[in-house]
Amino acid sequence: MYITLRDRPKTGRQATPRTKSRVSSVVVTLGVVSLMTDISSEAVAAILPLYVTAALGLTTIAYGFIDGLMQGASALVRIAGGWAADRGDHPKWVALVGYGLSMVTRAGLLVAAGFASITALVAIDRVGKGIRTAPRDAMITAASDPAHLGRSFGVHRTLDTIGAALGPLLAFVILWAIPDGYTTVFVLSLGCAVIGFALLALLVPDLRPRRRAAREPGEHPAGRPFSWRSVAEPRLRRLLIVSGALGLLTIGDGFVYLALQSRDGFATQWFPLLYVGTNVAYLALAIPVGRLSDRVGRARVLVLGHLALLAAYLCAGSATGMAGLTIAALVLLGVFYAATDGVLAALAGQLADTSVRAAAIGTAQTVVAVTRMIAAAAFGVLWYALGRSTAMLLVAALLAAAVPVCFLALRGLDPPRPAPEPEGGALA
Question: Where do the Major facilitator superfamily (MFS) profile domain residues begin and end (predicted)?
Fold first, then answer.
């Protein structure tokens, strides 16, 4: 009589939801939660740059402040969310608080009046995003096979990006049918947020990473008490420094889209389609690039992905208004996010001790969020002082100098790959 390796009886420890041949159902369900939540958030985000600069008549400095707030308001609470998930060993409930907070702000948008109240609600929504992100990514890591962690994050980010593409597309349809239909966009946003919150509450189990003894190659042993010293260990420090340096040269999609819009003269109702173009490219590439990072190294893919961002800056800074350059800029932004978003979380989660996994992921994401907030605010001033093309090309030149330095700084950071196990092997 033969039984497969997967059917082998479990003794001595709780069984994990990891599988060698497929992505965990927990990862898929979390992806659907993110899909609905991103429809909610991106429908609002897609109309914001033009709403601020055209409808409200504010300058790019004002938009730079708002965009920086969207990038950075979640920064410090990402660490707090990761710490709470690790400390209490209940990541689901911490994530649920974050999703719930964002859901409440959607209702607030229906009654908000004026720039100040909308800005405050955007900030609160970003705080909710900061609370939920690290616990959610820690659950993805706990539910996944370490050898295929990039693929798991790729699947999650694919579902997440479907929502990120649908949100702006639905906003476009609404504004096309109702030119001033901002309230309708807010109603759609609230409904999707409620669905995402309910799916997380009802269908996702409360994975508890510290109860799962991981002994995979490249991972730390589980069960240690929580300690910030583990978050600050040397390999993670190198990742944080490099991520921060590159974040300072990531100015935000909104500025790229405004540059393309000012050059090509997109009508207001077409503007959300720029977000759709980037998200479609990200959607197509998230899984392939995640699997590539599993094979060639996540640190390597993370840094080299910024070359796509560099090329996007060059396209946006060009004085030529060719449609091909606009499409290329959107595709390149999608490549950049496919190579960095889930890959950063996968790399931080793999390097971290199991007892501080959520805190490590949250810290890495916080560093990126804070530095991008600074970059957005500074670039708003740079655009105002130098103009669109000069400002874009200057940042592109700085990024070109930073990429090779950061690549060398992360050499040897990727953990060793575990030896492959035969699928469906037999034991007598």
Answer: 26-414
The neighbouring-strand residues paired with 427 are 3
| Pair type for strands 426-427 and 3-4 | antiparallel
Q: Is residue 99 part of a domain?
A: yes
C-alpha gyration radius of the chain: 21
Output the pTM of the full model.
0.64
Considering its fold, how many domains does the chain have in total? 1
Q: Which burial class, exposed, middle or buried, applies to 407 when counting CB atoms under 10 A from its CB (0-12, 13-18, 19+)?
A: middle
- The range of the structural domain enclosing residue 165 comes to 25-207+227-415
Q: Which element (helix H / strand E) includes 63? A: helix 60-72
Instruction: Judge contact between 5 and 425, C-beta under 8 A.
Output: yes
Q: Please say whether the beta carbons of 109 and 189 come within 8 A.
A: yes
Give the Cα separation of 30 and 33 in Å (integer). 5
Tell me: the pLDDT tens digits for 135-187? 888 888 888 877 777 778 888 888 887 887 788 888 888 888 887 777 788 88
**In CATH, what number is assigned to the domain containing residue 405?**
1.20.1250.20
d(CA 170, CA 162): 12
Q: How far apart are CA 89 and CA 339, in angstroms?
A: 30
Q: Is residue 424 part of a domain?
A: no
Torsion sign across C-alpha atoms 259, 263, 268, 273? negative
Residue 337 is assigned to a structural domain of this protein: yes
Question: Could you tell me the sign of the dihedral formed by the alpha carbons of 332, 338, 344, 350, in that order?
Answer: negative
Q: DSSP of 380-418, one letter per residue?
A: HHHHHHH-HHHHHHHHHHHHHHHHHHHHHHTTT-SPPPP
For residue 16, being part of any structural domain is answered with no
